[in-house]
Every structure is written in structure tokens, then in C-alpha cells.
Amino acid sequence: MNTQNINKWHMCSPKINIETIDSFREKGYSLLRNFYPNQVVHILKEKILEIAITHPEYCLYDQSTLSNEILLHRIYSPIYINNQIGDLLDISKLQFIIENICSEKVSLLTDKVNLKLPGGKGFPPHQDMQGSFKKYVDNIVTAFICLDDSNEQNGCLEIAGGLHKIGLFEVENRSIPEKDLKFMKFEKITQNAGDILLFDGFVPHKSGANHSNSSRICIVLTFNKEKTGNFRDLYFYEGFRMKYE
Ligand SMILES: O=C(O)CCC(=O)C(=O)O
Q1: What is the pLDDT of residue 172?
Q2: Are 117 and 49 in contact (CB under 8 A)?
Q3: What's the confidence (pLDDT) of residue 241?
Q4: Separation CA 112–CA 218 (nearest Å)
Q5: Fewer beta carbons within 10 angstroms: which end of the chain, N or C?
């Protein structure tokens, strides 16, 4: 796809069907297949990897599960650093879809990149609303955008559908207690590069380590209802400050 075709893609209106809305409401998630064309995914990945070199202060590293090697694990606020990333992601298209699901206006709250390189760690079961989001908003919608194919081997996302309706399983800690986990059934959601998984801030989810030779890089955006306020700048500065405390 050349630049002209990428521009054409940006000009196409996003489509939303009733299944997407029903699945989100009933199961707490919806998978949007082939949302981004390959060329857009390719450029996004290039821009993300550029940030890892030019802005190490926005990067978080973690130890590999396979060796003592230290791996790039997360990049904070890529859209703040390079607004071309926001343009490529076409945030307004995503907003349109999420607004149809929520039946109200939403705004972008946070943006980050989760990089699960070969040997990279997984994420224990949690609900996103267990974190600091609950200080500001009553719920979020997360857009989990895969820039690589994700599968069981490289640690795709796993979701316990339907349980978003129950509320928080644990308020103090950012994980779900064993006693509740026993009753949860997690479904592995494999994604192709360019697919987006939208999920509710109360839906339990987790992912395994990357046991493969290929990376699993995902951009993770969160949106909140516009009427609850705009906390984007506050989150940006708070997140950045916390990293250095
Ligand atoms: O990247 C993943 O596999 C899970 C990410 C996640 O749950 C989080 O960042 O809160």
C-alpha cells in the first residue's frame, strides 16, 4: 500500500455492526479484525522502535524469563512523544466505534506500548479498573492493538468474558484473588497484526510469557467517558513522576 492508499484508508468511515456492540455489552469485549492495513502497522512499528532509541526515559525494562538479559517491556505515552503515531492510529475512527458501543462521547486517556519480546514476561490476572484509573473515572475501554500476530506461544491476551458485570474482585491489590480465579474461565484471544481487541475496564484478563522466537508488540490505548472529565495530561505527568519515584 503506497502513501496515496494509506490516505484513502484514513478517509474511509469506520464501520460498526450490531455484533460488535452486543459482544462488548454481553462478554465485555469485541474483536475488530483487520482494522489497520499492513502498511500502517509496519510504519507504526518503525516509529515505536525509533522511540525506544531516541527516548529511553520513556522506556521500562524487565528481566527475561529465559536468562539475565534485560528486555524492553513498555514504552509510555508514545503519542505524546510522536504525534504522527496518533495520526496513524486515526484515534477519531476508534472513538467513533467506542462511542457507538458506549452510546456516549469518549476521550483518549492513556497510551502505552507493551513489548513482549522473546523471553518477555506475561501479566498476572487483573482488571484494569483495579489500578489508579478508579481514582478518576468510573470505567474505561481499552483498545489493545496488535502490531504482531499474537498467539498462545508468544503470550496472546486471555479474557474471562462476561465477568465485567460483577464489578471489582479486589480493590486494594492489583490482582485477582485465588478464591475468585478458581471459578474463572479464560479464553485465549489470538489476534493478527492490525486487529484490535476492545475490552471493558472490569473484565478480568491476563497473558502468558513469550515462549516463541517472535515478538508480540501491542499498542494499548484507554478511553473514558468524556462527561467524567479529561485526565489525559494529569495521567501523563503522574505516570511519568511515578516511574522516577
Ligand atoms: O500486554 C498484555 O499481554 C497485557 C497487558 C495488560 O493487561 C496491561 O497492560 O494492563
Answers
A1: 82
A2: no
A3: 58
A4: 9
A5: C
Please state the domain extents for the chain.
16-244
112 in ligand 1 pocket by Cβ < 6 Å? no
| Among 218, 195, 221, CA closest to 114 | 218
Which residue among 62, 76, 113, 207 is best mutated to probe the pocket of ligand 1, counting the most ligand atoms within 8 A of its Cβ?
207
Distance 68 CA to ligand 1 centre (A): 22
Q: Is the CB of 30 under 6 A from ligand 1?
A: no
Q: Residue whose CA is closest, atom 10 of ligand 1?
A: 128
Q: Closest residue (by CA) to atom 9 of ligand 1? A: 114
Contact partners, residue 130, CB within 8 Å, separation at least 6: 168, 170, 171, 173, 174, 175
pLDDT digits (tens, 9 = 90+) for 147-165: 999 999 999 999 999 999 9
* Topology (CATH level 3) of domain 16-244: Jelly Rolls (2.60.120)
